[in-house]
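Sample 3 of the quickstart, ligand zinc ion:
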Amino acid sequence: MRKIVIFSIFILFIINNIMAQENSRPSHHLKDGTFTNTTGISNNKSYKEIYNWISDKSRNKPAPYDFKIVSPNFDLINHANKSKNVTWIGHATFLYQNQELNILTDPHLTLRASPFSFAGPKRYTPPGMNFDQLPNIDVVTISHNHYDHLDIKTVRRIAKDNPEAIFLVPLGLKKWFLNQSIQNVVELDWWEEHVVKGTTITFTPVQHWSSRTLFDRNKSLWGGWHFKNKHHSLIHLGDTGYTDDFKEINKRLGSVDFALIPVGAYEPRWFMKFSHMDPTEATQAFIDLNAKKAIGMHWGCFILTDEPVTEPPKLLKDAIVYKSLPEDLFITVSHGETVILD
Ligand code: ZN
Ligand code: ZN
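Result:
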Protein backbone atom coordinates (compact mmCIF):
# COMPACT_ATOMS: atom_id res chain seq x y z
CA MET A 1 0.00 0.00 0.00
CA ARG A 2 2.77 2.40 1.00
CA LYS A 3 4.57 1.65 -2.27
CA ILE A 4 1.43 2.49 -4.28
CA VAL A 5 1.05 5.85 -2.49
CA ILE A 6 4.72 6.76 -3.09
CA PHE A 7 4.44 5.70 -6.75
CA SER A 8 1.23 7.78 -7.20
CA ILE A 9 2.90 10.84 -5.65
CA PHE A 10 5.87 10.35 -7.98
CA ILE A 11 3.59 10.16 -11.07
CA LEU A 12 1.68 13.27 -9.95
CA PHE A 13 5.00 15.09 -9.49
CA ILE A 14 6.06 14.18 -13.05
CA ILE A 15 2.69 15.26 -14.54
CA ASN A 16 2.82 18.51 -12.59
CA ASN A 17 6.34 19.18 -13.87
CA ILE A 18 5.34 18.53 -17.48
CA MET A 19 2.32 20.85 -17.14
CA ALA A 20 4.48 23.57 -15.55
CA GLN A 21 6.91 23.32 -18.47
CA GLU A 22 4.02 23.52 -20.96
CA ASN A 23 2.62 26.61 -19.24
CA SER A 24 5.98 28.38 -19.09
CA ARG A 25 6.78 27.70 -22.76
CA PRO A 26 6.28 30.87 -24.84
CA SER A 27 3.51 30.38 -27.42
CA HIS A 28 5.94 30.72 -30.35
CA HIS A 29 8.05 27.79 -29.03
CA LEU A 30 6.41 24.60 -30.27
CA LYS A 31 6.63 21.24 -28.51
CA ASP A 32 8.81 19.74 -31.24
CA GLY A 33 11.49 22.41 -30.70
CA THR A 34 10.56 24.48 -33.76
CA PHE A 35 9.17 28.03 -33.75
CA THR A 36 6.01 29.66 -35.05
CA ASN A 37 4.72 33.21 -35.52
CA THR A 38 2.92 35.24 -32.83
CA THR A 39 -0.39 34.28 -34.50
CA GLY A 40 0.44 30.59 -34.04
CA ILE A 41 0.28 30.24 -37.83
CA SER A 42 3.37 28.96 -39.65
CA ASN A 43 4.20 29.25 -43.34
CA ASN A 44 2.37 26.24 -44.73
CA LYS A 45 3.99 26.14 -48.18
CA SER A 46 5.48 22.69 -48.71
CA TYR A 47 8.85 22.18 -50.39
CA LYS A 48 6.89 20.54 -53.27
CA GLU A 49 4.81 23.74 -53.75
CA ILE A 50 7.98 25.83 -53.65
CA TYR A 51 9.62 23.56 -56.24
CA ASN A 52 6.49 23.62 -58.46
CA TRP A 53 6.42 27.43 -58.37
CA ILE A 54 10.16 27.77 -59.11
CA SER A 55 10.02 25.29 -62.01
CA ASP A 56 6.72 26.59 -63.48
CA LYS A 57 7.51 27.37 -67.12
CA SER A 58 4.55 29.74 -67.51
CA ARG A 59 5.86 31.91 -64.67
CA ASN A 60 6.79 35.55 -65.35
CA LYS A 61 10.53 35.64 -64.97
CA PRO A 62 11.55 39.26 -64.45
CA ALA A 63 14.66 40.56 -66.22
CA PRO A 64 17.58 42.18 -64.35
CA TYR A 65 17.95 45.96 -64.56
CA ASP A 66 21.01 48.18 -64.50
CA PHE A 67 20.36 50.14 -61.30
CA LYS A 68 22.41 53.20 -60.54
CA ILE A 69 25.18 52.69 -57.99
CA VAL A 70 26.49 55.74 -56.13
CA SER A 71 29.61 56.17 -54.07
CA PRO A 72 28.99 56.02 -50.29
CA ASN A 73 29.83 59.10 -48.24
CA PHE A 74 33.22 57.93 -46.97
CA ASP A 75 33.88 61.24 -45.24
CA LEU A 76 31.01 60.45 -42.87
CA ILE A 77 31.60 56.70 -42.77
CA ASN A 78 35.23 57.06 -41.78
CA HIS A 79 34.44 59.69 -39.11
CA ALA A 80 31.55 57.81 -37.60
CA ASN A 81 31.22 59.87 -34.44
CA LYS A 82 30.24 62.84 -36.63
CA SER A 83 26.80 61.63 -37.63
CA LYS A 84 24.15 58.96 -37.51
CA ASN A 85 23.77 57.46 -40.93
CA VAL A 86 22.90 54.38 -42.96
CA THR A 87 24.45 53.26 -46.23
CA TRP A 88 22.45 50.84 -48.39
CA ILE A 89 24.87 48.15 -49.52
CA GLY A 90 22.04 46.24 -51.21
CA HIS A 91 19.03 44.00 -50.46
CA ALA A 92 18.75 43.83 -46.61
CA THR A 93 22.37 44.84 -46.03
CA PHE A 94 23.01 48.24 -44.46
CA LEU A 95 25.97 49.79 -42.75
CA TYR A 96 24.37 51.66 -39.84
CA GLN A 97 26.43 54.07 -37.74
CA ASN A 98 24.83 55.51 -34.62
CA GLN A 99 27.78 57.53 -33.27
CA GLU A 100 28.68 54.72 -30.87
CA LEU A 101 28.66 51.62 -33.04
CA ASN A 102 29.25 50.51 -36.61
CA ILE A 103 26.56 47.92 -37.33
CA LEU A 104 26.04 45.67 -40.35
CA THR A 105 22.58 44.22 -40.94
CA ASP A 106 22.07 40.90 -42.76
CA PRO A 107 25.43 41.25 -44.53
CA HIS A 108 25.55 39.83 -48.05
CA LEU A 109 28.41 40.99 -50.27
CA THR A 110 28.96 38.00 -52.54
CA LEU A 111 27.61 36.71 -55.84
CA ARG A 112 24.77 34.34 -54.96
CA ALA A 113 21.94 33.94 -52.43
CA SER A 114 22.11 30.18 -52.62
CA PRO A 115 23.53 27.05 -50.98
CA PHE A 116 25.51 26.51 -54.19
CA SER A 117 28.37 28.57 -55.65
CA PHE A 118 27.35 27.64 -59.23
CA ALA A 119 23.55 28.03 -59.14
CA GLY A 120 20.72 29.87 -57.41
CA PRO A 121 19.74 33.56 -57.34
CA LYS A 122 22.65 35.58 -58.68
CA ARG A 123 23.30 39.18 -57.69
CA TYR A 124 22.63 41.52 -60.64
CA THR A 125 23.56 44.73 -58.78
CA PRO A 126 27.03 44.77 -57.21
CA PRO A 127 27.22 45.60 -53.50
CA GLY A 128 27.34 49.34 -52.77
CA MET A 129 30.47 48.75 -50.66
CA ASN A 130 33.05 46.00 -50.87
CA PHE A 131 34.80 44.32 -47.93
CA ASP A 132 37.84 46.60 -48.08
CA GLN A 133 35.69 49.75 -47.93
CA LEU A 134 33.89 48.79 -44.72
CA PRO A 135 34.94 50.52 -41.50
CA ASN A 136 35.61 48.45 -38.38
CA ILE A 137 32.42 46.61 -37.55
CA ASP A 138 31.25 46.34 -33.92
CA VAL A 139 27.96 44.48 -34.35
CA VAL A 140 26.44 42.23 -37.02
CA THR A 141 22.73 41.44 -36.85
CA ILE A 142 21.12 38.51 -38.65
CA SER A 143 17.33 38.53 -39.09
CA HIS A 144 17.01 34.84 -40.10
CA ASN A 145 18.84 32.11 -41.93
CA HIS A 146 17.53 32.39 -45.51
CA TYR A 147 20.37 32.60 -48.02
CA ASP A 148 19.67 36.21 -49.06
CA HIS A 149 20.07 37.28 -45.39
CA LEU A 150 22.77 34.94 -44.09
CA ASP A 151 25.67 34.45 -46.47
CA ILE A 152 28.36 32.09 -45.26
CA LYS A 153 31.25 33.69 -47.20
CA THR A 154 30.30 37.17 -46.05
CA VAL A 155 29.96 36.40 -42.35
CA ARG A 156 33.23 34.43 -42.36
CA ARG A 157 35.07 37.36 -43.95
CA ILE A 158 33.48 39.93 -41.61
CA ALA A 159 34.42 37.80 -38.57
CA LYS A 160 37.99 37.42 -39.88
CA ASP A 161 38.38 41.16 -40.53
CA ASN A 162 36.67 42.13 -37.25
CA PRO A 163 37.62 39.60 -34.57
CA GLU A 164 35.94 41.74 -31.88
CA ALA A 165 32.60 42.04 -33.72
CA ILE A 166 29.54 40.62 -31.93
CA PHE A 167 27.11 38.60 -34.04
CA LEU A 168 23.53 38.94 -32.77
CA VAL A 169 21.41 36.10 -34.12
CA PRO A 170 17.92 34.61 -33.65
CA LEU A 171 17.39 31.84 -31.09
CA GLY A 172 18.52 28.50 -32.51
CA LEU A 173 21.13 29.93 -34.91
CA LYS A 174 24.18 30.22 -32.62
CA LYS A 175 25.25 26.64 -33.33
CA TRP A 176 25.49 27.38 -37.07
CA PHE A 177 27.93 30.23 -36.31
CA LEU A 178 30.00 28.11 -33.93
CA ASN A 179 30.26 25.54 -36.73
CA GLN A 180 31.82 28.29 -38.88
CA SER A 181 34.31 28.97 -36.05
CA ILE A 182 32.61 32.30 -35.35
CA GLN A 183 32.63 32.37 -31.55
CA ASN A 184 31.46 35.86 -30.59
CA VAL A 185 27.76 35.12 -31.00
CA VAL A 186 24.74 36.01 -28.86
CA GLU A 187 21.38 34.42 -29.71
CA LEU A 188 18.17 36.13 -28.62
CA ASP A 189 14.53 35.20 -28.34
CA TRP A 190 11.82 37.75 -29.19
CA TRP A 191 11.82 40.76 -26.86
CA GLU A 192 15.18 39.84 -25.38
CA GLU A 193 17.80 42.59 -25.49
CA HIS A 194 21.54 42.92 -25.53
CA VAL A 195 23.37 46.15 -24.71
CA VAL A 196 26.55 47.09 -26.56
CA LYS A 197 28.34 50.35 -25.69
CA GLY A 198 25.18 52.23 -24.72
CA THR A 199 22.98 50.85 -27.51
CA THR A 200 20.13 48.57 -26.44
CA ILE A 201 19.46 46.06 -29.18
CA THR A 202 16.15 44.18 -28.98
CA PHE A 203 15.02 41.24 -31.11
CA THR A 204 11.40 41.68 -32.17
CA PRO A 205 8.82 39.34 -33.69
CA VAL A 206 7.86 39.57 -37.38
CA GLN A 207 5.90 37.12 -39.56
CA HIS A 208 8.22 34.84 -41.47
CA TRP A 209 9.93 31.43 -41.27
CA SER A 210 13.39 29.88 -41.47
CA SER A 211 15.12 27.16 -43.45
CA ARG A 212 18.49 26.46 -45.07
CA THR A 213 18.04 22.77 -45.88
CA LEU A 214 15.16 20.36 -46.47
CA PHE A 215 15.31 19.27 -42.84
CA ASP A 216 15.58 22.40 -40.68
CA ARG A 217 12.37 24.35 -41.26
CA ASN A 218 11.63 26.76 -38.38
CA LYS A 219 14.31 25.23 -36.15
CA SER A 220 15.77 28.70 -35.68
CA LEU A 221 13.81 31.91 -35.13
CA TRP A 222 13.35 35.01 -37.35
CA GLY A 223 12.72 38.63 -36.46
CA GLY A 224 13.59 42.31 -36.61
CA TRP A 225 16.32 44.21 -34.76
CA HIS A 226 15.53 47.38 -32.85
CA PHE A 227 18.38 49.68 -31.81
CA LYS A 228 18.09 52.46 -29.27
CA ASN A 229 20.75 54.71 -27.81
CA LYS A 230 20.73 58.18 -26.31
CA HIS A 231 20.66 59.76 -29.79
CA HIS A 232 17.83 57.93 -31.52
CA SER A 233 16.18 54.61 -32.44
CA LEU A 234 16.12 52.49 -35.60
CA ILE A 235 14.52 49.20 -36.59
CA HIS A 236 15.52 46.72 -39.33
CA LEU A 237 12.57 44.43 -40.07
CA GLY A 238 14.44 41.66 -41.90
CA ASP A 239 11.89 39.67 -43.93
CA THR A 240 8.23 39.79 -43.02
CA GLY A 241 4.65 39.49 -44.11
CA TYR A 242 2.21 42.10 -42.84
CA THR A 243 1.44 41.43 -39.17
CA ASP A 244 0.04 43.03 -36.02
CA ASP A 245 3.55 42.58 -34.57
CA PHE A 246 4.35 46.09 -35.84
CA LYS A 247 1.69 47.63 -33.57
CA GLU A 248 3.03 45.56 -30.66
CA ILE A 249 6.58 46.76 -31.37
CA ASN A 250 5.33 50.35 -31.22
CA LYS A 251 3.42 49.62 -28.01
CA ARG A 252 6.39 48.03 -26.25
CA LEU A 253 9.35 50.00 -27.63
CA GLY A 254 7.75 53.33 -28.55
CA SER A 255 7.81 55.19 -31.83
CA VAL A 256 10.91 54.65 -33.91
CA ASP A 257 12.98 57.40 -35.54
CA PHE A 258 14.02 55.37 -38.52
CA ALA A 259 12.78 52.09 -40.05
CA LEU A 260 14.35 49.84 -42.68
CA ILE A 261 11.34 48.07 -44.18
CA PRO A 262 11.25 45.34 -46.85
CA VAL A 263 9.19 46.35 -49.91
CA GLY A 264 10.16 43.70 -52.51
CA ALA A 265 9.77 39.96 -53.28
CA TYR A 266 5.95 40.00 -53.12
CA GLU A 267 4.65 38.33 -56.34
CA PRO A 268 2.78 36.07 -56.80
CA ARG A 269 0.67 37.20 -53.87
CA TRP A 270 -1.02 33.81 -53.33
CA PHE A 271 2.43 32.46 -52.62
CA MET A 272 4.37 35.37 -51.09
CA LYS A 273 1.79 37.27 -49.04
CA PHE A 274 2.44 35.29 -45.87
CA SER A 275 6.20 35.91 -45.91
CA HIS A 276 6.75 39.21 -47.76
CA MET A 277 4.90 42.54 -47.75
CA ASP A 278 4.05 44.44 -50.91
CA PRO A 279 4.65 48.23 -50.87
CA THR A 280 1.06 48.95 -49.75
CA GLU A 281 1.47 46.66 -46.72
CA ALA A 282 4.95 48.09 -46.09
CA THR A 283 3.38 51.56 -45.92
CA GLN A 284 0.88 50.28 -43.35
CA ALA A 285 3.81 48.78 -41.40
CA PHE A 286 5.46 52.21 -41.42
CA ILE A 287 2.25 53.71 -39.97
CA ASP A 288 1.81 50.90 -37.40
CA LEU A 289 5.40 51.32 -36.18
CA ASN A 290 4.80 55.05 -35.84
CA ALA A 291 8.14 55.53 -37.61
CA LYS A 292 9.29 59.05 -38.38
CA LYS A 293 11.19 58.06 -41.54
CA ALA A 294 11.87 54.88 -43.48
CA ILE A 295 13.86 53.37 -46.33
CA GLY A 296 12.44 50.54 -48.46
CA MET A 297 14.82 47.59 -48.82
CA HIS A 298 14.83 43.98 -50.08
CA TRP A 299 14.62 44.81 -53.79
CA GLY A 300 16.93 45.53 -56.72
CA CYS A 301 19.61 42.91 -56.03
CA PHE A 302 18.52 39.27 -56.46
CA ILE A 303 15.64 37.98 -58.56
CA LEU A 304 13.72 35.96 -55.99
CA THR A 305 10.10 36.45 -57.08
CA ASP A 306 7.89 37.43 -60.03
CA GLU A 307 7.38 41.21 -59.86
CA PRO A 308 9.43 43.36 -62.29
CA VAL A 309 12.60 44.41 -60.48
CA THR A 310 11.90 48.12 -60.98
CA GLU A 311 8.35 47.90 -59.60
CA PRO A 312 8.78 48.06 -55.76
CA PRO A 313 9.97 51.74 -55.60
CA LYS A 314 7.22 52.84 -58.01
CA LEU A 315 4.46 51.07 -56.07
CA LEU A 316 5.90 52.43 -52.82
CA LYS A 317 5.56 56.00 -54.13
CA ASP A 318 1.96 55.28 -55.18
CA ALA A 319 1.16 53.79 -51.75
CA ILE A 320 2.64 56.80 -49.93
CA VAL A 321 0.62 59.23 -52.07
CA TYR A 322 -2.54 57.10 -51.60
CA LYS A 323 -2.11 57.32 -47.80
CA SER A 324 -1.63 61.13 -48.10
CA LEU A 325 1.83 60.93 -46.52
CA PRO A 326 4.65 63.29 -47.54
CA GLU A 327 6.75 61.47 -50.16
CA ASP A 328 10.05 62.04 -48.36
CA LEU A 329 8.97 60.10 -45.24
CA PHE A 330 9.33 56.62 -46.75
CA ILE A 331 11.83 56.54 -49.59
CA THR A 332 14.00 54.22 -51.59
CA VAL A 333 17.64 55.08 -52.24
CA SER A 334 20.35 54.11 -54.71
CA HIS A 335 22.74 51.26 -54.02
CA GLY A 336 25.69 52.67 -52.13
CA GLU A 337 23.80 55.80 -51.04
CA THR A 338 24.48 57.16 -47.54
CA VAL A 339 21.52 58.75 -45.75
CA ILE A 340 22.04 61.00 -42.73
CA LEU A 341 19.57 60.17 -39.95
CA ASP A 342 18.50 63.45 -38.42
ZN1 ZN B 1 13.40 35.04 -45.70
ZN1 ZN C 1 14.64 37.83 -47.98
